[in-house]
Amino acid sequence: MEFLLLVGAPPLLGAAILGVLGDRRWAADANVLFSFATFVGASALTVRVIAHGNMLVADEQFFIDSFNVFLVALTAFVGLTTALFSRPYMRIESEHGRLSAGRLRLYHSMYQLFSFTMLLALTTNNLGLLWVAMEAATLSTVLLVTLYRTPASLEAGWKYFILCGVGIAQALFGTILLYFAAEKVWAASASPRCSGLIWTQSKANWSRPC
Q: What pLDDT is attached to residue 133?
């Protein structure tokens, strides 16, 4: 569990801190540092899974295997390199008066929140939590796309929100159908730990308690 905290804590903490102090001159550097800490945590998690095998923690709410751990590392790496690129870019935009203090706070906090939600989506073993993570990632991205509040950016943000909203709504409908279909099977197991939303509680496990 401590390895997952190394991955999830930096972006979540960064979103909270930069949401308040994201307009300071050192905010861009802090954004890079939080992203670097996330990458270090993802690297440590990768080494842990390669050395000791799959992880199923937090009452089966999170599952890490040799496949998705590399996606976690790749996501953290892209987040770090993008933070490095945006560091001078956002400073220039601020110096030229294109971004206010409030929008700088919004950018840095949503950047870290987006990283957290994507990592959460990759590591969760719960289908319902996966949907929540994807919805949160969509909303944080919309705020990033509309950062400049220009007609073009607002139009792009609305188009993105509508397209993703349709997909998210269909995903929610599918999640609900899957849950009710699986609950009929799990009801026969007489085990309160069984859930139709847990990926690893597959058909192969239906013959034994969860």
A: 94
